[in-house]
Amino acid sequence: MTGITTRPLAVFDVDNTLADTAHRQHFLERRPRDWDGFFGAAPADPPLPRGVALAVESGQDCEVVYLTGRPERCRADTVDWLARHGLPEGRVWMRGNQDRRPARTTKLEILKRLGRGREVRMLVDDDELVCQAARAAGFRVVLADWAADAPELKEAQETEGRT
Q1: Rounded CA gap, 25 and 162, in Å?
Q2: Rounded Cα–Cα distance for residues 14 and 41 (Å)
Q3: Burial 18-33 (b: 16+ CB within 10 A, else e)
Q4: Cβ distance 65 to 90 under 8 Å?
Q5: Res 148: pLDDT
Q6: Which segments of the chain are extended strands (E)?
Q7: What is the residue extent of each domain of the chain?
Q8: Which stretches of the chain score pLDDT less than 50?
């Protein structure tokens, strides 16, 4: 056996899809934004039950992978958080620490790479611009609309390329 799987992929965002970031939004309301504080508080994120349930359910038929706008320096905290909250094991794709492109650009680039040799059954993300770009590229999208609105985070995703 080669260890290569042909199961379709289910691709999940983390922030405001699986993890509730509401308790750390205040770090983004300051000027300048406190990115170290924002990401430093991520391990305390409560899980979003609808997102977690969808990821667990998807793991029955699909290989679950995670596509987050979090920078690479947050990898250990992110992997620990996913395991602590019972999410399926899966590869975690993150942006480079210095990558400030909009999430819709970085995530679509990785999504296309993932789809080259595998079926991507769905992308689940809360960012409407990421979802629009993925749909336009032919991917099936589930808009994660179950978290509280986070206007500061949405602005930062698009204008500062931070998450």
Answers
A1: 13
A2: 14
A3: bbbbeebbebbeeeeb
A4: yes
A5: 85
A6: 9-12, 63-71, 92-95, 120-125, 141-143
A7: 9-159
A8: 1-2
